[in-house]
């Protein structure tokens, strides 16, 4: 199939919230064909919090409730059956998917979602797992360019290190769609479209739950994800911003690379040194939070009573921990990027305008609403 060259255009005076946390303006990407109406698919709007993301300043604070209700009214979880897009244009395409590290439950769910959507729409998926190696991921992407794929979907390991590989793709006329993490670069120049969650907002919601539960007092441990990743940088920023001005003190802040095993081992070491001083643990994802819970129990403490634990992602195991009283909360961050990724590609194939930034809606879950399944 002849590859289409995607041109990026600035959409002036246009506010797009296909997948927006609280709303925000976006640029658009399109091919030469006529515009058609964009699908209004969204994930579930925040149910527990109405505070807008810190990085989106255009939404008036006084209208938080109305804005949240509006988002809720228009939102739905992507189900792989986009009703307003001709998905038949995907059949026969070859699409590369560069996964940064297919080892934790969230990443596996993401890969499975993209593979399932590719199978559903008759797309040949060229898959590569970088194994958390940024150099290998760059090489994987260069290989996809050499193979002449029609599109590249990439989950970047870090914000820097892939720019040259992405330039090779863009120069070859291969659109690059970033999912779940971003890079340092400009849409339309360094990549085509980014589909992400508002990581700052997610961390703020967990921090606010800690403040509510503790009265804004206590000693906190932070378990960080992969260094240099957008999600890590933004979640750290969001949490620290939210606790500023409170009496919550960070007494330990260490990297555990988004894995349950490292979350457990790092937390074990922290507990040995500071166990009686710790009141709460913020983990950048729920795999690390669940590892921390195991370490807390092994050290003779009661998670949820002696030490509060909060995380991000919303897998079934975290929901179970919340319902069991072992985890305080989890802010969702869906890994199910398959439907929206291939809907985006279908719209580009059809020549539609597509936002260059598509933001997922996320929700804070606690004991009051955790009796749900987010599909992973």
TrEMBL record:
The keyword Nucleotide-binding does not apply. Keywords: Signal. Residues 95-329 form the Periplasmic binding protein domain. PROSITE patterns: PROKAR_LIPOPROTEIN. One of its GO terms (molecular function) is carbohydrate binding. Residues 1-20 form the signal peptide. GO terms for cellular component: cell envelope. Belongs to the bacterial solute-binding protein 2 family. This is ABC transporter substrate-binding protein. It comes from Candidatus Blautia gallistercoris.
């Amino acid at each position: 199939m002849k590859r289409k060259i995607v041109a990026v255009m600035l959409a002036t005076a246009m506010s797009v919230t296909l997948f927006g946390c609280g709303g925000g303006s976006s640029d658009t990407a399109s091919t030469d064909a006529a515009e058609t109406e964009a699908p209004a698919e969204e994930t579930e709007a925040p149910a527990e919090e109405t505070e807008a993301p810190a990085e989106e300043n255009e939404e008036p604070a006084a209208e938080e409730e109305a804005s949240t209700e509006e988002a809720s009214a228009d939102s739905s979880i992507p189900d792989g059956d986009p009703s307003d897009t001709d998905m038949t244009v995907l059949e026969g395409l070859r699409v590369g998917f560069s996964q940064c590290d297919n080892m934790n439950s969230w990443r596996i769910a993401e890969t499975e979602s993209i593979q399932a959507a590719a199978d559903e729409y008759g797309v040949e998926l060229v898959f590569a797992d970088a194994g958390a190696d940024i150099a290998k991921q760059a090489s994987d992407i260069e290989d996809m360019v050499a193979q002449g794929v029609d599109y590249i979907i990439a989950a970047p390991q870090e914000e820097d290190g892939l720019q040259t590989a992405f330039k090779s793709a863009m120069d070859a006329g291969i659109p690059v769609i970033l999912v779940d993490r971003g890079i340092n670069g400009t849409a339309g120049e360094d990549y085509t479209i980014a589909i992400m969650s508002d990581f700052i907002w997610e961390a703020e919601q967990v921090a606010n739950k800690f403040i509510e539960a503790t009265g804004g007092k206590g000693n906190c441990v932070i378990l960080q994800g992969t260094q240099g990743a957008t999600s890590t940088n933004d979640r750290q920023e969001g949490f620290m911003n939210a606790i500023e001005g409170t009496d919550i003190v960070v007494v330990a802040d260490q990297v555990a690379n988004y894995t349950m095993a490292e979350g457990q081992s790092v937390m074990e070491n922290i507990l040995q040194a500071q166990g009686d001083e710790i009141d709460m643990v913020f983990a950048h994802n729920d795999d690390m939070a669940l590892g921390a819970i195991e370490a807390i129990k092994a050290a003779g403490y009661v998670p949820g009573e002696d030490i509060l634990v909060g995380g991000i992602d919303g897998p079934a195991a975290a929901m179970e921990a919340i319902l069991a009283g072992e985890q305080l909360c989890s802010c969702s961050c869906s890994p199910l990027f398959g439907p929206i990724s291939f809907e985006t590609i279908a719209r580009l194939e059809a020549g539609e305008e597509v936002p260059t930034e598509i933001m997922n809606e996320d929700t804070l879950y606690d004991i009051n609403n955790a009796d749900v399944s987010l599909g992973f």
